[in-house]
Design brief:
The protein is mainly α and 217 residues long. It contains 10 helices and 2 strands, in the order αββααααααααα. The protein has one domain. The protein is 73% helix and 3% strand. A hairpin with a 7-residue loop joins strand 1 and strand 2.
Length: 217
């Protein structure tokens, strides 16, 4: 039997595909170490997918990525840096669990500094103290969670990139100011999008309630 919850999950599942597709056309910045790959609006949408769709959106993202490579897209270990981080960002917004909110950035810092190149670019890994601090201080505001989630995704993606794509320590260090701007922009964009969507939903609900009230009276 089809229930309302089942319908909502199904809608959320396919809506995730549509949102990611549209957001992918908004290019933000070039990814150093790649040939023609950019960060896009998708990076700002990832936390919202977890916030709005929960585990359904996470599953949809996994299916999307698997399907993409199953139909012929070229795969490499480095491409995992564009798959896994988004999943962790959404998981962060879906579950309030220490393994995702604390352990992931801590392990990422260890793995980064343990790498021969990462060791000489250790200041880069200090970014991941942001989600660690937010967790330890118990900050639960939406803005804090959005910012922390973007840095958790950044931590996972950076470690994968470090171990799969050759880059000099100087290149990593040169990215520090860029990363600062990118992560703040992603978190701020997600915050604004969430506010806009919630406002629209609120207006629609009020109008529907008004019409229903008018019909009853």
């Amino acid at each position: 039997m089809v229930t309302n919850n089942s319908i909502k999950r199904l809608v959320g599942f396919f809506a995730t595909f549509g949102v990611l597709f549209v957001a992918s056309f908004c290019k933000v910045s070039f990814i150093v170490g790649s040939h023609n790959i950019f960060f896009s609006g998708v990076n700002a949408v990832y936390p919202l997918l977890g916030l709005w769709g929960g585990s359904v959106s996470v599953v949809a993202m996994i299916v999307r990525f698997v399907a993409r490579y199953a139909i012929g897209a070229s795969f490499s270990l480095a491409s995992l840096a564009f798959i896994i981080p988004g999943i962790f960002v959404s998981l962060y917004m879906t579950y309030n669990h220490w393994a995702i909110r604390l352990l992931v950035p801590v392990v990422s810092m260890i793995l980064f500094i343990a790498h021969p190149v990462g060791f000489y670019a250790a200041p880069y890994a200090l970014f991941w103290l942001v989600p660690i601090g937010i967790y330890l201080f118990g900050l639960q505001s939406l803005s804090a969670r959005l910012l922390a989630s973007t840095f958790v995704g950044h931590a996972v993606g950076s470690v994968i990139w470090l171990y799969t794509v050759p880059m000099a320590a100087s290149a990593w260090l040169a990215l520090i100011p860029v990363v600062c701007a990118e992560r703040v922009i992603f978190a701020a964009t997600a915050f604004v999008l969430h506010a806009v969507v919630m406002s629209v939903i609120s207006v629609v609900k009020k109008r529907v309630a008004y019409k229903e009230h008018a019909l009853v009276n």
